[in-house]
Task: structure prediction
Amino acid sequence: MAKIGIVGAGAWGTGLAAILNRAGHDCVLWAHEVEVVDGIARTGRNPLFLPDIDLTGVVATTDVAAAIDADAVLLVTPAQFLRRVCRTAKPVWRTGVPAVICAKGIETDSFATMSEVVAEELPGQPMAVLSGPTFAIEVARGLPTAITLAATDRAIGQSLVDWIGTASFRPYLTDDVVGAEMGGAVKNVLAIACGVVGGLGFGDNGRAALITRGLAEMVRLALAKGARAETCMGLSGLGDLILTASSQQSRNYSLGYALGQGQSLEAILGARRSVTEGVASAASVTGLARRLSIEMPICEAVAGLLHRGAGIEETIRDLLGRPFRDEPGFAGTAPA
Result:
């Protein structure tokens, strides 16, 4: 058994706390909201996120230092807040305690990946990335889930697998940290695109085309960052993309669907408590792609809709008007 700190008490942090608590670990859950801490202390429930999930035995706190005093710390804050949290935690972070990045995204100002952010703010500390096809409520209920755990140090990765792995929550170990991160960031943007197509009533053919062509964009960006293509074909890439781009449970898909139905971005976000990571990621993913001279037309289309005032009809027309391309693998053709 281990002491696990979880920094971030949204749906995903709450789901992770639930399964680790049931596995017998000592779990300390840091929350930004005082009402979350009070609710867990009084009722064993998170009143704002996954309120039906029993958290009896989980210690909730607003003190970051209390959560970081652990054998491993899961960083489950929204991606754009990760740097601030790490900077706050740095003075009390014990040497050798792994930082397990559970946030999916790329920083909007710097275009840094989450592992680059942690390396800058917690230099020398071991790190890993936990990413894959996971709806928090299903994980919290103990439904079967498989996920990627990426760590360059195999011994640390294996220790984390031993701690967080259960019969229903199955981590698969890889050393391709960047590949796992690229999948988690890009799939949220592609899920918004698939939601738009769903909201417009364009059918399953269109969604399948976006998933497939979007996967090619994900691979191009991952390769440019030094990752391996096969990582994008695994749980943290294709697996997460299929889940997120196919269900109204996905905050990103449902946001895109509402856009396709004619709702404004401001109205959609105003009705939500949880962060929809793909909104910020659309800007940061495409910014990074432009910096690396990588073509990502689907992600660029989503960024145009969300951040540059592009209209849906014009965006769809531009995508469908692109030149025909060869399928990847066609003799003599560069990857599409």
Q: What stands out?
A: Strands lie at 3-7, 26-30, 59-61, 72-75, 99-101, 127-131, 145-150, 169-174. The chain has 16 helices and eight strands. The first helix runs from residue 11 to 22.
